[in-house]
Amino acid sequence: LYPSTQHLYRRLGYERAGTRWEVAVRSRDLAVRRPARMAVRRIEPADAAAIREVYRQRAAQTTGFLDRVEYHWDRVRQLRGQQAVGLLVEDAGDVQGYVYYVQRRGDTTCMQTLQCVDLMAATPAAAAALLATLAGHRSMVTDVAWYGAPSDPVLMALDERVYSVRLLDHWMLRIV
pLDDT tens digits, residue range 151-166? Predict the structure, then answer.
């Protein structure tokens, strides 16, 4: 539950259980080299099981990640009616990471923001490959953002501290 008011939900037995953070990087600051052995390609329906395994491994190590059912995956692939682009990174055919993103037009210019709906990397090399691929959009994209945390392992692929992390929400939970 992402509450509009915590006081009301606390009276109903909910309590803070975690936080939701947004990581943002200027696309021009994504100076990351893609490891030569890593291939990046569009996600195909046959990749679903491998992508879910990458997510499952990360979720098992990260507080607040849920075991996703098909409803959740549908929301990742289509964010509020906008079809997300899905890319995966593989090393010798082994899926190491993926990203789903949508492009959002800026308010005053034709430049866009790339909003990553879901960004997961199982290895540092996979994180570098994904960030290098996202950097390739910099001619039309000013910013790249994703939901992460101050300790997001993807940030380790950046050479410098060129990102910002901001708290978006506290989420609440009630055990019944």
Answer: 888 888 888 889 999 9
81: left (phi > 0), else alpha (psi -120 to 50), else beta? left
Tell me how far apart the alpha carbons of residues 90 and 37 are, in angstroms, rounded to a whole number.
Answer: 9
For residue 97, give Cα distances in angstroms to 29, 42, 75, 172. 21, 12, 18, 29
Cα separation, 171 vs 58, whole angstroms = 20
Q: Which residue pairs, CB below 8 angstroms and at least 24 apart, start in 110-113?
A: 110/140, 111/140, 111/141, 111/142, 112/140, 112/141, 112/142, 113/141, 113/142, 113/143, 113/144, 113/145
DSSP state letter for 36: T
In angstroms, rounded to a whole number, what is the distance separating the alpha carbons of residues 26 and 113?
A: 9
**CB-based burial of residue 23 (10 Å sphere; 0-12 exposed, 13-18 middle, 19+ buried)?**
buried
Question: In angstroms, rounded to a whole number, what is the distance separating the alpha carbons of residues 47 and 96?
Answer: 12
Q: What's the pTM value of the predicted model, to 2 decimals?
A: 0.87
Residue 6 to residues 3, 14, 28, 64, 149, Cα–Cα distance (Å)? 6, 8, 38, 18, 22
DSSP state of 33: P
